[in-house]
Each structure stands twice: as C-alpha cells, then as structure tokens.
Amino acid sequence: PLSPSIPNKPNVDARDDYLTFRTETENFEAGRMKKKLRHEVSDKCFICELNLDDEDDIATLINRLKSFRKPVPIPSKDTIKALMTDRRTLIPEFEEDRIYCKTTYVNTVTNRLHRVHCRCAHLCTEYQLGRAKLAEVVSMAFMNSCSLCGEPGACTACGNPECDELYHSTCAIFSNGYVNFDIRDPYLPRPACPRHTNPNPSTNRSIRLSWIPSSGTEAFDSACVDRYDLRDPDDD
Fold it and tell me: Which of 13, 66, 94, 208 would you label with 39, given CA atoms 20 to 30 Å apart?
C-alpha cells in the first residue's frame, strides 16, 4: 500500500521507507565505528603494519620471508618477538624486552591510531637521517618497494648513496645477515646490501663513534648502540 501523499513530493512506498531507514542506520553505525576506532589504539605497527601477537600477521611476515630470492631460515614466534625488541643498551626508564614505543601515530588514510615497533623506527632511513618525521614516512611509503619481498612500504635503504636497494624493517631484520647491520658489523651500524658491506668489520667502539657525524643522526639499529646514537619516538 502507498504511504499518505505528501504535497509536492512523490509517493513513497513501504519498501522505500525501509531502504531509507536501513541506509540511515548503516551510516550512523559507520560513523560510530569511526569515532570508536579514532580512540582505540591498534597494535598493528604504524610502519610495518604487523601485530606480532596476531597469527594472521605472523603468517604474512613468514610468507614475505618465503618469497625471498635467497632462502632464509623461518623464525619461530618467540624468535620474532626476541629480534623485534629494542637492541640498544638497556635504558632504565624503558621496560625490558621493549617492543613498542609509548608514542602513537594516526594513519591519515584509515584515521586509526597505531603503536609503532621501536626497531621499525630505529631502522627507518628517512626518519633516522632527519629527512622526515615518522608520521610522514607512511604517507611516502607507497613510493618504495622492498628489494627482498617486492612489496611496498616504509623501508631502510642501503648506506651507499649510489645504491637503490631498499628493505622493509622486518625483511632486513630477518634476512639472515643479507643486510649487514647488527650481524656482520655491529660497530658500524649502517644498513648495506652485500655489494656494499664493509669487507673489514670494525672491532672496537671508538672506530664506530669516529664514523658517526656530530649530529649523531646517521647511526642505525645495532646491538651496541646507545640511547642517543639514533632517533627514537619516545625521545623526540
């Protein structure tokens, strides 16, 4: 049956009334969910987009590692967490086995609030060299493509200025030494592809310190770096 006629408006039947009501309800729920997400903090890292407690995200990481041209060992979940902890000398006010920074960031595409892995921040080239704020890195990430897995995302670059090798932080960490920092030459913490790896690893800290410029911004993640050897979101 038709609804009562409204002057200057077409008749609207019950089905149209229902569709209008459903659309308005869906729009209301969508708006409510957006507001909720803006206040909830996601454990998916702002940079690598992985939550190390989520089985699907762990599977995503493992699939990336399996796609490497050169096979690498597949780490266990415990090993992944261990290797994603802060590598610097233990800092009193930071918790032991620190994986996340306290600082959070808003993804301007999804409008969601995210935590960030400290190691991802420590390995982010544009951030560590002071070329961009960490919040700006993700917006530029679509221009990068990881040389190991081929997928886009925020990357760390080979330290040689003439090299175009780029790596996701997680791909670099689990590359089994393909990227040289922290494994082959811990006293010269700069990312480098196999072609540009230092052939004579330094053996003492003073050599490493003489290499770092006075600004201290060109040191990258390594087992021997101290607090102010690199940028950290909770120190900015």
Answer: 94
